[in-house]
Amino acid sequence: MDIRPTENLNQTSVTEFILMGFSTDPNNQTLLFVIGLFVYLLTLGGNLTIITLIRIDQRLQTPMYFLLGNLSFVEICCISTTAPKMLWDLLSGDKKISYIGCGLQLYFFGTFGSTECVLLSAMAYDRYVAICHPLHYTILLNQKVCQCLLAASWTIGHFNSTINTAMVFSLHFCHSNKINHFFCDIPPLLRLSCSDIFIRQMVTFTISGGVMIVSFGLILLSYILIVSSVLKIHTAYGRIKAFSTCGSHLTVVSIFYGTIIYTYIRPSSAHSVEEDRLISVLYAIITPLLNPLIYSFRNKEVQGALWKFLGKSRSYSRCQF
Fold first, then answer.
1. Which whole-number Å values give the CA distances from 285 to 78, 82, 155, 289, in the listed order?
2. What percent of the chain has pLDDT over 70?
3. Which domains occur in the chain, in start order?
């Protein structure tokens, strides 16, 4: 653990931070802005498309797509917490963020990230019920149960983020105010503190680690039961079909939990600034982009709903013409 002694609190406290971002080269910043803007707009478009299709197509009015629509909403919120500020920094060169603004960014990013952790475990439960108890699917995952799962996801996300934000911003910042990152996150903020961070590290490690490990454990348990059930299917086609319904979810889980655990569960002594920044790009920017592509547009039902929607749009346009 990285433990720093408490400094004299009469020193000047930090009132704002500077997000160093990816590069100080103006040419690189222009290129990064174009790429970042393209990724952000593509992420918004993809996830909004999923939400729209789920709301307008009756065939997608199922628990699975209810949870998927909420996952897309969380992805929009998550990337919108970091990307607009990052793009503004690249465009304007003004990389300052206020003390309160940094705290709010940390809180909202933590809330959406923790909510996604729990939501992915709820989606694993959906796959477990669909494969292991198909005849009781509508009973075990009725509207009330889905709403409770969603409420639990947001409650846990809020609780986890509130504790972590309070722990980090109860520290004293009196040295550099330069955050070697593109948004306010726990590891780079802990590096800036001149207080004793041991207790805060242990609390954030325990709370965040508990949410991640319990959620991931529930996902793992669901898939152990799924595999056990699928192996009892006599035909190879039946086993392949059953496993195929889980492929997209497993891919999303692997990307999301792999990057999150690597970033937050490691001890701070193992943290590298460059590694943290690269991994953060994966879970803060790339994952929200990939989720609708992996989880939805490969799905035949979603593809059918999309083509149906596009067909109606073209027909309406011809009639208007």
1. 9, 8, 24, 7
2. 86
3. 16-314 (1.20.1070.10)
